[in-house]
């Protein structure tokens, strides 16, 4: 089985400052990798390199055995902590955008039957993430949790192979976060997707991930900080192995399913949240 | 209670807002009375009755020579120039601002040029405009456009650069090309900001309008003021100044309403 993402001996330097030092990791298809570590340890920089928002200073990154694209593209979706959705578009417009970019090369606007089909697809997706009835609202009228659901639906519209999450739930209240974790689990189970998530919340990392990867600076004294970058210091595969439920078996029926899928008995994430 | 915590009621707010205007009017009436008592022929601070007569002559009695209502004709002439110039400036500002703000190559090419051009005092160019374009409408419209366009370009380019980088990255992950991102992400978010920038440039636009009309024109609000100045006709000048102020205020209000009407998301987005 080839790796979905393979990172080989990657270094990242900003001027004299070494941020990441000789990082290598293979990420299997359909994995849900949680990146954890103290702030300033380079996990977000690492994610940005997977997004092609930053380029590695040295080393190579392969996606599906091919060198990673030089700029962000539709193969890799992203949900940021903030500013992921467009304030000037309604919820429906935000989700529709991916289809419009794909279908109308020059203007980015669909008309007629193509638009109707895209709207139907977007509405279905909005229902799946639990935003039925909110289609005509602007993001400013949605709560933080709803905005992140919208950002997720928007990213999924292009059916990316890889979904990157940059502390997507960090700004949410614990209760809301638990609900959206349920949605995230459902998405990972029902879409053919590899997820890489940056988080500072360990319970979230172990609750959602199939694998938890920790970044740390082995040498953290002030005079050493600039000269030594962070590395991957821990790499846990969760036991028992968590596998996506078969695609066919997943019910794609409605919002209640989406928001509160039945937790499996051995699922540590079924434990109360916010610990 | 601390002063910082005392808030006026709605009615009291209206009263407070009107108070300085009332004080101004009363002060004017007193000063005018004093001067007219000393010299009934004084033209500097005409009485309210004289002002009313001036307004009646300019606004409600057709000019015996041309048959036009002069104030209406002046207003239309001036507003036409203003509208034409602001439309040209807005279009150039929007296109250049978007390109300079969004495309780093364009920023490197045009940013310094715009920065230099915006430092040229437009009024110093007025003689050149009159020489090159003649004394007609083109020169006046060009002066106003030259006066406000650099500001619009720089302001809108800055507004584009202010958009969170996350938005542009997200748009790329949705497969957007540069043109698609410009048309669907940046331009729609720039339009309400254009209205804000236009509101800010109304003051300079009127300045250049009056200046151009004062120097070479046959109609317009600025032309009229500078024409009757020869006769010390304060009874015409003062109502015209008040009228120009009111026009500018109403245009500002209209732009604000327009923004709220067509970009409801813009005001709401503040919390994001």
CATH architecture of the largest domain in chain B: Orthogonal Bundle
SS class of chain A: alpha/beta
Largest interface: A-B, 39 and 28 residues
First-last Cα distance of chain A:
36 Å
Indicate the percent of residues in helices of chain B.
over 70%
Number of E-state strands of chain B: 0
The neighbouring-strand order within the major sheet of chain A is: 6-7-8-3-9-10
**Helicity range of chain A:** 25-40%
In this structure, how is the largest beta sheet of chain A organized? 6 strands, mixed
Strand content of chain B: under 5%
**Annotation field: number of helices of chain A:** 8
Discrete helix count of chain B: 11
Q: Give the CA-based shape of chain A.
A: globular
What's the pLDDT, averaged over the residues of chain A?
A: 83
Proper CATH architecture of the largest domain in chain A: 3-Layer(aba) Sandwich
Report the CATH C-level class of the largest domain in chain B. Mainly Alpha
Largest sheet of chain B: none
Number of domains of chain B: 2
Based on secondary structure, the structural category of chain B is mainly alpha
